[in-house]
Write a structure and sequence with these properties.
The complex is a heterodimer. Chain A is mainly α. Chain A has helices at residues 2-33, 37-40, 49-91, 100-122, 131-139, 144-166, 168-172, 177-207, 216-238, 245-268, 271-280, 296-299, 314-325, 327-360, 362-377, 392-403, 409-415, 418-433, 442-477, 486-512, 524-540, 547-576. Chain A folds into two domains: 65-290, no CATH class; 318-330 and 392-576, no CATH class. Chain A is built from 22 helices and no strands. Chain A is extended, with a radius of gyration of 34 Å. Classes of the chains: A mainly alpha, B alpha/beta.
Amino acid sequence: MKIMLETFRKTLTKVIHLRSIIGYNGLVFALKKTPLIGKLLPDRLYSTTALKVIYWVFHIIKEAFMLFIGKIFGLGMIYLISLFLKTEYVAFGMEKGISEGNLFASFALLFFIIYALCGIVVKKPYFKCTTEKEYLVFMLRMDPAKLNITLFAYDLAKLVIGYLIAGIVAIIAGAPVWLWLGIPVLAVFIKFIGIGSQAFSFRIKHKRNKPMKENATLYVIKVSLLAMVCPFVFMMIMNGFYIDLPIMLAVVALLVLLGTLGFFEIKRFNSNLHRRALHDNVAKPQVDMFKDVDNTKHFKKIKAKGTVSSKKKGFEYLNALFVKRHFGMLMLKPILIAAGTLIILGLFIAGFISSYYREAGGEACMEMVLTSLVNILLFKGFPNELLLVEGTVNEFFRYLAQYHLLVLLIPISISDNSFKSTQAMYINCDNSLMTFSFFKQRDKIIKLFDIRLKQLLKINIAPAIVFAFVANLVLFYTGGQDYPFQYLVTYLIAITISVFYSMIWLAMYYLFQPFTTTVNIKSGVYNVVRIIIFMVLSIIVWIPSHSLVLAAILVVITALFVFFMRKLVYKKAPKTWKIKT
Amino acid sequence: MEFVISHMVKSYGSKQVLKDVDFVFEEGKIYGLLGRNGAGKTTFFNCINSDIDINSGSFYLRENKDTDNKIELMPEDIGYLVSTPTVPEFMTGREFLKFFLEVHEEITPDKTIDEYFDYMMVPEDDRDRLLKDYSHGTKNKMQMLLNIIASPKLVLLDEPLTSLDVIIAEEMKNVIRSQKQGRITIFSTHLLDVAVDLCDEIVLLHNGRLEPIDKSNLGNSDFKEKIIAALKDEDNA
């Protein structure tokens, strides 16, 4: 026994020491990754003893905190609910045939068993190979069985101590002492069931040469079964029933028996099996949690389908192929939004027509639909149109369609796919071509820039036209045009906004090239400019302006913006448009 | 033609990676840039390729050492093979080569696309597959092929033979040898044997500086030991 305890102590010391090193270094790594602050922190932070001690003190406090908070929250809540139910049962006279203490114990045991079983089901694999285990077993060659068993024992010790402390609530509530002492023991046996059953299933998997991974379907079944218990318990309580203590104790005895079997299964799980289990359940290294997420997977779903016309040459050919192989990635969002908007609009119109049909009858309804269609085609030139929407709502929407078309910027910016398109351009195309000198020549850069700008306009134009169409319908049903070609002006405004918005993202990409090889943004300036742009746009979007004036201003500003941005890209991009690691 | 680097310095914060690089590379030779892991070989190449800005110094081309006429090094003068080959993954090898030939209007191809593939020994069944599905070695060959077609004055090869199998590595070495005339080739490696086998001159990148090694010693049994001793010596400038 003494030797065993000494082995436990030695192993645990090594684990805790390594855990503190990994934890501390991980924290410093995360801090050094923080923008601005990170650059100020020196590398010697990794070896500063004083900071390590401070970290270690905080780590112990955190461990103690987690130890009690979990138990107090879990078991404490169970005791409180049991106490509440006992009081209510007594108040309503539903405790016949059982003493108050036993009634409390019956509820407490029932809830605790459900709680503990939930715990072992939802708990991550017991044989999960954390970073410390990976280092100790696979690099430092520690015996995996000794390590796992020590950590299990450590967890069980924490469990018992935590439950004993949390159980003081039960004593105060008048629970029998055996319950206070018994629940931690029961918790240990239920833990044995959890670990033992996993060891058993892993051993069988190993026999069948399958990886020691938890079966996802089985997990769902287990969670579903446990979830099904809840309505029964709820119905039982609502009807004033309780489970007799002897029955509960029989269940406890069964669990203890299963736990004992689990214990022997754990004993049977040899060192080799422990190693395999750890090998098959390696967790993400702690340091990786602070690293940039690799977003490239999403962009790598390319298939070699189709080719492009041989008439296209050079960069036109490159772009056409790029669009062909990324069609879903580039077009899906704008097409879905445009189609979704049309469907909603269609439903809205169908509702409108059906209500009109009920009020005015089939003939009048048909006339309304047809005259409306003719009017849409003739820009409201047919005099007998029928309108249903009238009054202040009518005026409000009309005002929006006349003076607030800048608001179109909101749906256009939501449906716009330019940012994602630039990400795809970088990771699947430019990232590699930037290593070739021809790709960084001014004339070639601007040639491809122009082609891409046109392409982005094509990608994003469908939703812009749909939104303009919706605005025009509002205008149409609230009185029609104020001046000739007003409907066309609405389309012009939406398309110009779309051009402006696409240009922002494309120019920003060429001027800052903010993406890393994991498609994360690594440019403080880019982020700052992005925030400023969002702030400016969110202010100007509410500025009222007559549609004709707005169209004139937008066309001039967009033309100037495109002109100057092209100039800027031509001048700066050979230097700024490059690979970031 | 010569490629001249004059007192080039590159630092990251307080860490000076290239301290005072001052060197002249001559046409028609393969220079083996030898340095330990982390010596700054890739940084050196990235500086020349203008992927990163240098802190001070300059580099340029000149006709020969007797003329002082500095010729600005333009992007089209450089061919750069990175150690991890990156190719536009959405294209097939054939599509990429077609695109490359079309954008280089100044080049008159002396071969058909398939002849180029044959020259680089790119397997036939790979030619119409997406580049993303190419092996490391075949991607490397594609990169090399494009640099051969573009025919730059200065070729930078950043550990191009690393992780290639023996056959492909040997094929690549032969291609590099056959392409050395009329251009300056700088070949970085941390493998001494590769440098000795392939290169006409050996240059050490050590302590942030370039140091030539006397080529007459090449092949001498003491040569390797001398280089290792030089690389080990932290104070050796």
